[in-house]
Amino acid sequence: MTKYNAALSKVSDDINAAQNMVAELSEKISTVSSEMEEFNQSVIDLKLKLTAMHARLENSDSSLKRLREFHQDGQTRLEQLSREITLKKQKEEASSQAVTDHEEKLAQMYGTIERLDGAIDLSEADYQQIDDRLQKSDSKISELKTKQEKELEKFRMLELERSQLKLKRENIANRLEERYQSSYEELKDSSRENEAAHEITAEMAIEQMEADLTHSKEKIAKIVDVNLGAIKEYEQLKDRFEFLETQRDDLLKAIDDLQKVIKKINKITQQKFSETFDKINEKLTEVFPRLFDGGEAKLVLVEPDKPLESGVELMIHPPGKKLTRLSLLSGGEKALSAIAFIFSIFLIKPASFCLLDEIDAPLDDANVFRFNDLLQIIGENSQIIVITHNKRTMEFADMLFGITMEQRGISKVVSVNFLKKDEAA
């Protein structure tokens, strides 16, 4: 027992020593791991700085290239202007010589004109005498033509009256024959035989007799049967009229109320639109310089006096370029401007989730870096899901889900978590 106890004590001491050694080694491993993580973070930061420096270098190179092109264009334009000035000086000298020649010719022409004026003055007197005789003859001819036209007009009027009277006589004769089944001549003969009727009608004209006859027919036509149900029909129509009048008043009141509601809605809509429009412009001043590394952008109403009916134009001012419309930019600049506009709207009222489908496809490496830098800021308040094939965008992700097809028709999901241990905890 003593021997075993001594051996057990020794083994216990060895175990304690091994445990102490393991604890020291674990502490050293933890220290080395933390140092490795710091080194890895430093490497990532240096890579990001290197990417940013490369982006700035590319922007500087492009700016230098544009400035050289502007300088070359300026020199070309200066040479062109020098040539144009030389040509214009030559044209000016030729024009001066031509002016001198034309002045000499003009002096000669003035002399010719004076001689012609003298000849015209001599001919003017003869022309005036002939013109006076012609005017007198024309006035006589005009008077004769006027008299002739008046006589012809009178003749035509008489012919027209004669035709009208003949037509009236035929119509009256036809109506008498239809009514009394006798011709006009027979009635005329019978009226001569009846002296009393002759005395009455002798003093009346045909038109007056026709008027009396028409008036008598109208009186006969107005004598109709009495409608005994008119009072009851009037009461029914009166009730119907009052009902329709009430309905009309209700409709007019409803239209008035609807107009008031429409005006109120338009007022509130215009106010909300103006507030949102100003907020988007405010966010554009923050988001656009981050994506373009400078510059500015703003929304402009096409018709400021009619905000609810006006179109909206996105005006872009990239760094190193002049202010222009979105439609005049290149493909990458259009995509980056659209991203700035969308994120400006999103940041006004961020949602819990943001899903982006290959939004970085038209962007180059420098723009992708700035785009992902903006995504990290937005990701502080929203969870962002990005579908992408860009490796630079994948570097900024906290978690990757890859879709692969090892066998035809069978897709497989592979996930990678980039979160640190303290963040995962």
Report a brief summary of the structure.
It contains 9 helices and 7 strands. With 425 residues, it is mostly helical. Among the domains are: 156-194; 270-349, P-loop containing nucleotide triphosphate hydrolases (Rossmann fold); 351-425, P-loop containing nucleotide triphosphate hydrolases (Rossmann fold), CATH 3.40.50.
CATH architecture of the domain at 270-349: 3-Layer(aba) Sandwich
CATH structural class of the domain at 270-349: Alpha Beta
Structural class: mainly alpha
What percentage of residues falls in helices of 4 or more residues? over 70%
CATH superfamily of the domain at 270-349: P-loop containing nucleotide triphosphate hydrolases
CATH fold call of the domain at 270-349 = Rossmann fold
- How is the biggest beta sheet arranged? 3 strands, antiparallel
Number of helices: 9
Count of distinct strands: 7
Low-confidence stretches: 420-425
Terminal Cα separation, in Å?
50 Å
Mean pLDDT figure: 81
The order of strands across the largest sheet is 1-2-3
Radius of gyration from the alpha-carbon trace, in angstroms = 55 Å
Query: H/E order of the elements?
Result: HHHHHEEEHEHEHEEH
Label the overall shape.
Answer: flat
Proportion of beta-strand residues: 5-15%
